[in-house]
Structures are given as C-alpha cells and as structure tokens.
C-alpha cells in the first residue's frame, strides 16, 4: 500500500470513528425528572401530558427518553433530583424560575374557576365570589386560590371542609395536598360549589366529568394589601440546571420541531391557553 493510500485509509478510519463518537453522544438518553404523584402532569405509566411532551422532545433531540421517577410530590423534584444530578430536565416550570435556566415558554395558561354548567357561573373576576351564595370551595393548599378565599372572606367557613379532603392530616412539617381529580369530582358531585385551580391541574377531569362542567379563566391578578401582586397567569417552560447551557440550547433547537405535537397534546388535555407573554 502506498503512503498516499495508507493516509487515505487512516483518514477514512478517523472520520468513521468521529462519526461513531458523535452518534454515541447523540444517542445519550434524555434524563427527564418526573413524579409518580403528579397526575395529570406526570404518572408512572407515562400517561401524564408532560410525560408525552417529554417523549416528543427527546425524539426531536435524537435521544431516548429516560424518565427518572420520584415517589414524591413535584415540589421536591428540583431540589432532590435535578440539582443532585439524578436527572437533567424538568417540564412544567414557570418561565424565569430563578432556580433554573428555562426555555422559551411552551404554553401559557392560568387559574380557573370550575363550576357545574347548570350553575350558570361564568364570571372571570375572582372577587365576584364574595357576593355569591357559595360556601364550599375545593382548592389546593399553598396556592393563590387559598389567598383568594382569604381575601373574599370565604376561608374561615371553608377550612374544615378543605382539611377533610386530606383526611385532616396535619400540614406541619409535611406536605399534604388535595388530588387534582378530587377538586373536580367534589364540584361535579355537589359537595363543593366551586373549585379554583391552575387550569392544567383540572382540565382533564373537567373534560371527563360525569356532568357538564365549565372552566372560566380568571382575568386579573391578586393585589395584596401590601401592594404586591400575585399573578394568576403563567408561562410554562422547560428547565435545566443553570450551568447546563449546552443542553438548554439543544432543547431550544428542538422545540420548534414539536410545536404541533405540543399543541395537539394540550388540546387533547383540554387546557385553555393564553398567548405567551414573551
């Protein structure tokens, strides 16, 4: 073999090795942080709508989706899994979350009031509940809905009912929460007059409820007595660790490829959407 031929052979081999290395790198799985206790967002069987979006994202990135499940509520995912390196990507974070580097928004939605259609309640003003006959409200603890009840004078008479939804478990030094599906079933069954919730929490269950239900998007934020504002509409994004800029860039490049898939998944879920704020 001539020197030129040997050089060409070496160059070809090097090229093949480089291509193989690149393919191996691209084939690294996308480790997705997920919770088993966060239906309808995430479920161990992969039926959560964020699970489905994550699969589409991984495919668009040329990676295998690998779910790293935590048997915990989602509030612990960033601290206990993403920041410790157990997983690399978390879906459904608020755009601009200071703990993370976040993608451009993948959708925007907000808090809704959920009622039975036969109640003919369709106001978008959260303060309007102050003057209603409603006395039972299904909400999730620690949410803006709790503040709404306090600001409209509905909290005190509703507290015992709410704690009954978690079997009167103490919230001291532990995290207990009302299942999202329970918010809707309480209203559908007549045990509650109204539910106030983040739309993605309840959209699936409103859609499949045993009686016709209505979701009304709340149209303005809460202004606290100290002048600070509690927003009720949020851009939702994908988050990574702050120093994982390469992964974030890869995600940003993949998102336009799955825009139609995301829209379809959200439509199937029944989530009411708002125009992105940015």
TrEMBL record:
UniProt record, GO biological process: methanol catabolic process
Gene Ontology cellular component annotations, sorted alphabetically: periplasmic space
Solute-binding protein family 3/N-terminal domain span: 29-269
Pfam families in UniProt: SBP_bac_3
Family annotation (SMART domains): PBPb
Signal peptide coordinates: 1-26
UniProt xrefs under Gene3D superfamilies: Periplasmic binding protein-like II
Keywords on record: Signal
Protein name: Amino acid ABC transporter substrate-binding protein (PAAT family)
Source organism (scientific name): Oharaeibacter diazotrophicus
């Amino acid at each position: 073999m001539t020197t030129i031929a040997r050089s060409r052979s070496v160059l070809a081999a090097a090229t093949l090795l480089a291509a193989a290395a690149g393919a191996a790198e691209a084939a690294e799985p996308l480790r997705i942080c997920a919770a088993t206790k966060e239906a309808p967002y995430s479920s161990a069987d992969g039926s959560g709508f964020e699970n489905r979006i994550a699969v589409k994202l991984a495919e668009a990135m040329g990676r295998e989706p690998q779910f790293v499940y935590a048997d915990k509520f989602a509030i612990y995912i960033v601290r206990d899994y993403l920041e410790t390196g157990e997983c690399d990507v978390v879906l459904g974070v608020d755009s601009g979350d200071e703990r993370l580097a976040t993608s451009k928004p993948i959708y925007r939605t907000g808090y809704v009031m959920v009622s039975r259609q036969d109640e003919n309640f369709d106001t978008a003003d959260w303060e309007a509940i102050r003057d209603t006959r409603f006395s039972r409200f299904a909400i999730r603890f620690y949410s803006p809905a709790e503040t709404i009840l306090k600001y409209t004078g509905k909290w005190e008479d509703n507290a015992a009912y709410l704690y009954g939804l978690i079997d009167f478990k103490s919230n001291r030094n532990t995290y207990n929460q009302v299942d999202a599906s329970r918010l809707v079933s309480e209203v559908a069954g007549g045990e509650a007059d109204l539910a106030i919730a983040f739309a993605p929490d309840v959209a699936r269950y409103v859609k499949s409820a045993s009686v016709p239900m209505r979701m009304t998007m709340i149209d303005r934020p809460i202004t606290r007595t100290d002048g600070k504002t509690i927003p009720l509409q949020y851009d939702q994004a994908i988050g990574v660790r702050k120093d994982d800029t390469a992964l974030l860039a890869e995600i940003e490049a993949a998102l336009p490829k799955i825009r139609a898939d995301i829209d379809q998944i959200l439509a199937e879920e029944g989530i009411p959407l708002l125009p992105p704020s940015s």
